[in-house]
Amino acid sequence: MRTIDWVDGAIELIDQTRLPGECVMLRIHTVDELIDAIRRLAVRGAPALGVAGALGVALAGEDPGAIARLRAARPTAVNLAWGVDQAAARLPEGPRAVLDAALRIRDDDIAACVAMGERGADLLDGDRLRIMTVCNSGGLAAVERGTALGVVQTLHERGRLAEVLALETRPLLQGARLTTWELARMGAPHRLVTDSAGPYLLAKGGIDAVLIGADRIAANGDTANKIGSYALALGAERAGVPFIVVAPETTIDPATPSGEHIHIEDRGGDEVVSLGGVRVAPEGTEALNPAFDVTPHDLITAIVTDRRVIRP
Ligand code: MRU
């Protein structure tokens, strides 16, 4: 099953807001529907956003306003703007060329995730690995296989995975809802832990590596990923556990010199004061909600891409 694809003249994608309860496909016919799906995280994860952006240009046609709005639908993952730009560059050649470019990005993502899975699994030593991860970097964040969770899948297929500890990922629970769903479908042993348990469990020992995806990797290796990644990196450094970023080359943004230049999405306080639609904080409580954080490059053991291993 593909997370996102082009089927009979429209975008089809899994509505990730409905998981794990039900796996429902959305058919998207307009750019505005796609922007709405991106903003409410029906489709999410950097590589999937790259494909969505490119396919979205095929829906937008020659409407520069629609293309600009799509490009800005979410700010942090560079893949969205990159995918839009790649497809939009082909507009002068006509709609078939735009769609071909978008389908090429889809196909390249599938191949890149296979390559990252193999390279990441080769990089890790040991036969009974316990891996910690945050958010969802699996097939749901890409097209077929994922990035960091793609490495987990390869380890599992090679019989080298003992267990995954998945952080729940407040406030939208991508770890609790999506990563566990994917790991269960893989048949991979896993347990869910609260976000705040991450650094403590690393300090306690017995975890072989932290594997995370990335939304944007600056030229100096500073990496934006889901909020909570930085705390895990600090905990991993203190515990002497390798902290590995797995992302396609398309997530590296040479135009952004360092992490302080990365635009971190602020999703507003409503997602924090409520949980699953139920208010958990008193009326009137204000909240901060940065959706991502930046891990400085010196805390990153390695960045595994579809082409290489970078040691920042
Ligand atoms: O807000 P999200 O769910 O789009 O955040 C996703 C992440 O932070 C992922 O870790 C990242 O996009 C890499 S996915 C392969």
Describe what this molecule looks like in 3D.
There is one protein chain. By secondary structure, the chain is an alpha/beta fold. The protein folds into 2 domains: 108 residues, Four Helix Bundle (Hemerythrin (Met), subunit A), CATH 1.20.120.420; 192 residues, Rossmann fold, CATH 3.40.50.10470. The chain is built from 10 helices and 16 strands. It has a 7-stranded mixed beta sheet with strand order 6-5-4-7-10-15-16. It has a 4-stranded mixed beta sheet with strand order 11-8-9-14, with helices on one face. The chain starts with a strand and ends with a strand. The model has no long low-confidence stretch (mean pLDDT 98). 5-S-methyl-1-O-phosphono-5-thio-D-ribulose binds next to helix 2 and strand 9.
Query: What separation lies between the terminal Cα atoms?
Result: 35 Å
Write the CATH homologous superfamily of the largest domain.
Translation initiation factor eif-2b, domain 2
Q: Order of strands in the sheet with the most strands?
A: 6-5-4-7-10-15-16
Query: How would you state the average pLDDT, rounded?
Result: 98
Order of helices and strands: EEEHHHHHEHEHEHEEEHEEHEEEEE
